[in-house]
Design goal:
The protein is of the alpha/beta class. It is built from eight helices and seven strands.
Amino acid sequence: MSLPKTPSFNLSGKRALVTGASSGIGLACAAALAEAGAHVVCAARGQERLQSTVDAMAAEGWSAEALVLDMADLDALTGTMKRQAPFDVVVNSAGLARHGPAMETQPDDYDAVMNLNLRAAYFLSVGAAHGMKAAGLRGSIIHISSQMGHVGGIDRAVYCASKHGLEGMIKAMAIEWGPQGIRINTICPTFIRTPLTESTFDNPERVKWIEEKIKLGRVGEVTDIMGPVVYLASDASALMTGTHMLIDGGWTAD
């Protein structure tokens, strides 16, 4: 009898782009893909921290390069995607949150969140898909979304709107691009400890609320995202598109 074999999680020979790669979840995604064998183009706004990330990855013997890119600059984003060689894998971890009561939302805050979380994500996806289609690649596009793309949250009306929009976007794109073998999915984490979330975890009442909502009784770490991103990037998830992976400790199980 011939037994089935597990599809490969190995990414050797693959070229990957990770945005927001200089810290937090983006850095963890870049490290995970590089450790799995991919050559990773690490993109972020800040040159110094980005180069430190690439240097640390090189010290591990992994293949990586730096790309300074402001995702909110649409001209820079679309131009970069046209100039870059096609990617087998694109992971978008760039994001922004400006929390506050809905009745106090300012248009500038609304626009800033939507421009990065949704508009930039949209055109990054389009640019990536163009490259994949032209090169005949059966690629994987992965967006770091949020559990807040599936529920509501206090003082998070704008953020939730951007992430709910992202979830709808990937469903439509998956239908369009599926015939070309291009997959697009999201990863939806709960609260993850990163430099950007330090202020949240400095608030004891907010930490109590978070821990009560997470059924596993702990907040997330960036390492909790590393396995899922390799899975979605690899052949192991070859039949997954237009959907999401909730890494939320049971938050949305209610």
